[in-house]
Design a protein that fits this description.
223 residues; alpha+beta; five-stranded antiparallel β-sheet; 16 strands; binds nickel (II) ion
């Protein structure tokens, strides 16, 4: 299941993010790739050893981790430090699967959900679609600047080569309390259903759904 989060960043936040990225220094993206993905990866990443990296995190990650749809869909236990990636003309990322376990030795996490946050508008670059194959279905995604997409880390995906212009994104990964995508989807549907219920007649229905939600979550959750 793909979850799109529209307008994660305001126009003002987006302007600030883009100006920080314009001034930041970038390194070869191969440095952060898993050993199988390295051959596929051609992009540049903001050097995380600079003040601008934490300034960006303060804006973007703060917005993300408070967003109701993110919380509802991801049921997050841990989130990775993001990568700010730049794709210029000729750059792309061939088909690959993200590593199952990521992070430094003392802070490992399992990747359940992959997230891309877009900072460039679709008309600013040609090519560069995020291509995701999930259960035999292929989607090509290119969202407006400030929007984000969540997709299962178990899916094969790629970034088509940019033909012209520049594609700026952030990518990060979540370990969810619920490892399975189908179980997360059921919980999200239940959560959305109970939010739709209102009025006196709905009180006992809502109680039942609250009970189902809490007990399914308890049945499946890992810390
Ligand atoms: Ni990937």
């Amino acid at each position: 299941m793909f979850i799109k989060i529209p307008d994660l960043l305001s126009g003002k936040q987006l302007d600030a993010v883009r100006s920080v990225l314009q001034q930041g220094s970038f390194v070869d993206g191969k440095l952060s790739a898993g050993k199988h993905a390295r051959d596929q990866k051609q992009n540049e990443e903001l050097d995380s050893n600079q003040d601008s990296y934490s300034a960006l995190n303060d804006v973007i990650m703060t917005q993300l981790v408070q967003h109701p749809l993110y919380l509802q869909a991801a049921l997050p236990a841990k989130i990775a430090a993001p990568i700010y990636a730049r794709y210029r003309a000729g750059m792309g990322y061939g088909e690959h699967i993200d590593d199952a376990l990521m992070g430094p030795a003392h802070a490992r996490y399992r990747s359940d959900i992959s997230i891309t946050i877009f900072f460039s508008n679709p008309e600013e670059y040609r090519g560069g679609e995020l291509r995701i194959s999930d259960n035999g279905e292929v989607s090509e995604i290119k969202l407006p600047a400030g929007h984000a997409i969540l997709y299962p880390s178990s899916s094969l995906h790629s970034v088509k080569a940019v033909d012209e212009g520049e594609r700026l994104v952030a990518v990060t990964w979540v370990q969810s309390h619920i490892r399975r995508a189908d179980q997360r989807e059921l919980l999200m549907q239940l959560d959305q259903s109970r939010q739709l219920l209102s009025g006196e007649a709905a009180v006992s229905a809502r109680q039942k759904i609250d009970q189902c939600y809490a007990n399914l979550f308890r049945m499946w959750a890992e810390l």
